[in-house]
Amino acid sequence: MATETRSKTSFPEIDVAGAPRELGQQIGEATRDLLPPLFDHVLSRMNQNRATPLDTADVLAAADSYFDIAQHYSADMAEELRGIAEASNLTPAQIMLINARSEVPHRVGGGSAPWEGCTTIAVEKERASAGVGLVGQNWDNDDEMRPFSLVIKRRPTGKPANMTWGQAGLIAYMGLNDAGLGVALNAIPGTMNVDGLPWYFTVRGVYEATDIAGVNEAIGRVDRARPGNLGMITREGAVDFEVMAGQHRMVRGDDDGLMVHTNHCLHPELADVNEGATLYGQTYERKSRSHSILDEKSGTVAVDDVKAILSDHENHPTSICRHPNDDPNSGSDRSVISMIAEPDAGRMHITNGNPCDNPYEIYELN
């Protein structure tokens, strides 16, 4: 295991390798100081705006109950979480709560959909100026998650290596693998299935795939607990999976080698999901604005062009580069980070804070 911190604006990096339990133990050891306060923050956020706080024992019991479906989906993933718990001196239920933080409140008596946004842009290699396909996004979320965040490079035995940004203890988040898959995540509307698989396990399954067919299998293997969107660049082009409890649909990139996704469903068979739903922060306007900027590029698209889009402030403060505002539900959210993944280069560009005033740091898998 290697751990590295480089500059004031970079995130800590952890490089782990081995069998599932070994991966978890290395991660748990390296993040032992982050995990207890992260658990407390997750629990606090679950009780935010509740007149009566959720009973912690009930919350942990609900989290622990997700181990059965996680084990059914992937014994390796469940084993990795147990390794994290073992090395960090937390319980497996506490680590599962960090991973099932959106699902558990619904399981213990109701909860609201998570307030998350994000704008995703994918560029196929034929359209990219460097000849390497890319996918980028802003992560519009809770800025207080930033101190618990890091870059993890996992090299699991017998599976593709992956590099992800996210919070300590998470089984997966946004990033890339060494099979040419780059993954961005967006919130989309939809209903919950409290007995389904927590979202981040599906995301990790995607990193274990090597092509679009494998991604489709990873998503469909077990029913999911909540909706989510996977905007991806692959060696077969740009592709998007809109994932619901009980169904998922694939949307291909445009004929011009570009794809944009925000926080509403694009597939015709899921269009009715948008009707009557509370959609996050100018989702239609952010998608339209991204396309209008891209349309000005008649030739190839560079990483710097995507950075410029992700830093755009039209319709501020709920612009592509989002800043806090007075919305009672999501006004505290901001573009906590901005990320661009170039999987075939094994490279990620990540800001620590809004991309309009923070540099993109480079992280490399190889």
Strand content: 15-25%
Distance linking N and C termini: 15 Å
**Count of individual helical segments:** 11
Q: Uncertain regions: pLDDT < 50 for 5+ in a row? A: none
Mean pLDDT: 94
Class by helix and strand content?
alpha+beta
Question: Mind summarizing the main beta sheet?
Answer: 9 strands, mixed
Tell me how many strands there are.
Answer: 15
Would you spell out the secondary-structure blueprint of this structure?
Elements: E1 2-4, E2 13-18, H1 20-30, H2 35-47, H3 56-73, H4 75-88, H5 92-99, H6 104-107, E3 120-123, E4 134-141, E5 149-156, E6 162-167, E7 174-177, E8 182-186, H7 199-207, H8 212-220, E9 228-234, E10 237-244, E11 247-252, E12 258-261, H9 271-274, H10 283-295, H11 303-310, E13 334-342, E14 347-351, E15 360-364
Parallel strand pairs: 2-5
Antiparallel strand pairs: 1-2, 3-4, 3-12, 4-13, 5-6, 6-7, 7-8, 8-9, 9-10, 10-11, 13-14, 14-15
What is this structure, in a nutshell?
With 366 residues, this protein is of the alpha+beta class. The protein has helices spanning 20-30, 35-47, 56-73, 75-88, 92-99, 104-107, 199-207, 212-220, 271-274, 283-295, 303-310; strands spanning 2-4, 13-18, 120-123, 134-141, 149-156, 162-167, 174-177, 182-186, 228-234, 237-244, 247-252, 258-261, 334-342, 347-351, 360-364.
